[in-house]
Design goal:
Distance between the termini: 38 Å
Shape: globular
Number of strands: 11
Strand content: 5-15%
Order of helices and strands: EHEHEHEEHEEHHHEEHHEEHHHH
Largest sheet: 8 strands, mixed
Number of helices: 13
Helix content: 40-55%
Structural class: alpha/beta
Strand order of the largest sheet: 3-2-1-4-9-6-10-8
Radius of gyration: 21 Å
Length: about 375
């Protein structure tokens, strides 16, 4: 799906040699992935023109010790405390405290693995396309049994609804994608991420970015590998928070949800409504039965095609993802989240020391 296009080795020409890159890696209990994540980034960097800021939200596992050990061998790496703990605050902190030389800010989540060309591709794409943000496609990769089932669903239309950065396709202008690189000056001018969002801060930022007249380029040559949650409870919690964040974005900016975002709530409401009405008319049970049959038929077909019995759990994974996301989304929509922009991240400066940043309504 993500092979190089014919006659094209990447998204854009090589980045300008004078570009200084600051990479922000938010962490919280990421001992399983952080070593491989940093190793995949360090081999791509010129130590004289780059830095990696690992912004830790108070990990209680070995994450901080691992990062400190790596930093001793690689001065490019710096461990920074993120007292607010959430990812939005981590990236904003990196944008403020990065080297004054840094023109490009890269977001690199610890739960992912990066290809050898990742940094060069996203920086070159950002510069050659005159984009304010470069995003990348995601390949979901599972190792343990349930994780493989989750990965299979997340990579399918049933799990992603045709989202651009999930389905791949050619490099192109998009409305949203998995965040990779930012023009640092634009990020700061727009106030960065809204720190009242614990999830969906990326989509909320993309909406403000496009509303201000900037554009987002998806670079398929820099597709990353993402490792999904390994346990059903962790998956449910993640998707509930994703749905709640999306609902808040919809309410704050009065966005009309896409059809793919309305389908899961319809499945949840239809299924729960069918169960509630079944005592009055048993035929209503056909609604949840049809939904569950669809999910499990998908799982059986997937397991047979890939010859992996673990994928029989894909029906369960899909149901968890749909229903948890929908519960979070409906909670936010029903609560009518205020559209007033809070001051959580309005203090970001256009350049360190240059005074207050420009708000989106002043651009």
């Amino acid at each position: 799906m993500f092979e190089a296009e014919a006659g094209q080795t990447g998204c854009a020409p090589s980045p300008r040699s004078e570009t200084f890159v600051s990479i922000a890696v938010p962490t919280l209990n990421e001992q399983t992935h952080i070593r491989a994540c940093l190793a995949s980034l360090l081999v791509q960097l010129d130590p004289k023109a780059s830095e990696i800021l690992v912004l830790d939200g108070g990990s209680r596992d070995a994450t901080r010790a691992i990062v400190a050990q790596i930093a001793r061998d690689h001065p490019t790496v710096r461990l920074v405390d993120n007292p607010a703990r959430i990812q939005a605050a981590a990236i904003n902190l990196a944008a403020r405290t990065a080297s004054p030389q840094a023109d490009v800010l890269i977001r690199a989540d610890a739960h992912a693995d990066y290809p050898p060309n990742f940094v060069a591709e996203v920086v070159a794409a950002l510069q050659a396309r005159n984009a304010a943000s470069a995003v990348v496609p995601m390949r979901t990769v599972g190792e343990k049994a349930f994780q493989r089932a989750v990965a299979a669903v997340q990579g399918s239309f049933l799990g992603n609804g045709g989202s651009a950065h999930r389905r791949g396709g050619p490099s192109r202008w998009v409305d949203h994608g998995h965040h990779a690189a930012f023009d640092r000056s634009v990020f700061l001018r727009l106030g960065g991420y809204d720190e009242s969002f614990t999830h969906n801060e990326d989509a909320e930022y993309d909406h403000r970015l496009r509303s201000a007249g900037f554009r987002i380029w998806m670079c398929r040559a820099a597709a990353i590998s993402y490792f999904p949650r390994e346990r059903p409870t962790a998956l449910a919690r993640q998707y509930y928070n994703h749905g709640r964040g999306r609902g808040r974005t919809v309410m704050r900016h009065r966005i009309r949800p896409a059809l793919r975002q309305l389908a899961p709530p319809a499945a949840l409401l239809g299924s729960t409504g069918g169960l509630a009405l079944a005592p009055l008319e048993p035929l209503f049970l056909a609604i949840p039965a049809a939904y569950l049959a669809l999910c499990h038929a998908f799982a059986i077909a997937l397991a047979a095609r890939r010859r992996d019995p673990a994928l029989l759990a894909a029906g369960i994974a899909a149901t968890i993802m749909h229903f948890a996301w929908s519960a979070g989304f409906l909670r936010s929509v029903a609560g009518g989240f205020s559209i007033a922009r809070p001051p959580a991240s309005a203090h970001l400066d256009a350049r360190p020391g240059d005074g207050p940043g420009v708000r989106p309504d002043r651009l």
